[in-house]
Amino acid sequence: MLRPVTSAPVMLARVCRSNMSSSSCCCANACASWPARRQSHGRLRPPAPLVASKRGKAQPHVSCSAFEPPSSSSAAPPSQDNMVSLYKQLATSERRVAEAERKAMARTEEVVTTERELVAAERELVAAQRELVMAERELGCVRVQALKLEQLAKDRGVELLYLRGILNMRGVLETIEAESGVPLEKTKRMDKWVWLFEGNAQLLKCVEAAARVKGARRAAEAVVKLYEHLSSHVHGSHRVDDYAKSRRKVVIYHVSPMHSRTMECICQAYSYPYEVYTPANDQEGKEEEEETENV
């Protein structure tokens, strides 16, 4: 005959009444007041281990901690306020993520646009470089053409002086004074050459070294003396006139070495072809230079 199954709280109460101490009984009484709970799988738990009492008989030891009611914090479901707060935090996080994605997309579009502009700028740069190369080539051709025209103009000027019979030292000085843009108010030869020397530092430096003078006015005085010498002596000398007229150059002759060097500087500065004629028996130039140095 099967015995009825006695619940654990009833058994603990009986044990407590028989032999357990007062404290254990209190715990057992507390546990006995709980309602009996059916096992989840339909089987009973094994009995608690026996503990020897003061009388020497083994009695089952039951810990009250095993029958403590579960805490309300662990078993209770979260409140509605907590759920609302969690939903708000989730919504805020989603908004932040969406904003970050939007900014990332905008930044990506900016980068793509910048790269496109960079590619376009590189293409424009390549085209500009090609145009620059072509312009430099054209400029080189223009410069070469300009040099040719300049040389042609000089040749034509020399040819014109030769045809007019003034391709000589005096004719060159007069041509420079007339065609170098000297202001009209400067009518004296001295003032004209001072103006010319002030506008051409290289010519001034050459004449200063040739005439052994310093300054534009002293250099102009040397040119004026050279012109006066040509006016009084060149036309009276026929020793090399035929030779000079047959040359298509400015023949520098019948002057002192100082004046010869001065005339060379002028011909070089204004691109006139010249030739220095120095016969071995010509002593007049040397004597005149000695007189100039003594002065």
Walk me through what this model shows.
The chain has helices spanning 8-18, 22-32, 72-75, 80-164, 169-179, 189-198, 201-211, 216-233, 241-246, 257-269, 284-294, and strands at residues 50-52, 58-60, 250-252, 274-276. It is mainly α and 295 residues long. The protein is rod-shaped. The chain folds into 3 domains: 8-70, no CATH class; 86-163; 165-294, no CATH class. Helices cover 65% and strands 4% of the residues. A hairpin with a 5-residue loop joins strand 1 and strand 2. Keywords: Coiled coil. Residues 63-79 have a biased composition (Low complexity).
Topology record:
Blueprint lengths: L7 H11 L3 H11 L17 E3 L5 E3 L11 H4 L4 H85 L4 H11 L9 H10 L2 H11 L4 H18 L7 H6 L3 E3 L4 H13 L4 E3 L7 H11 L1
Given the helix and strand composition, which structural class is it? Answer: mainly alpha
If you average the pLDDT, what whole number results? 76
Radius of gyration: 63 Å
Q: What is the strand tally? A: 4
Q: Which percent bin holds the helix content?
A: 55-70%
Instruction: Trace the largest sheet across and list its strands.
Output: 1-2
Element pattern in H and E: HHEEHHHHHHHEHEH
Strand content: under 5%
What gap, in angstroms, lies between the N and C termini? 170 Å
| Total domains | 3
Shape: rod-shaped
* Tally of helical runs: 11
In the predicted model, the low-confidence regions spanning at least 5 consecutive residues are 18-36, 50-54, 281-295
Largest sheet features = 2 strands, antiparallel
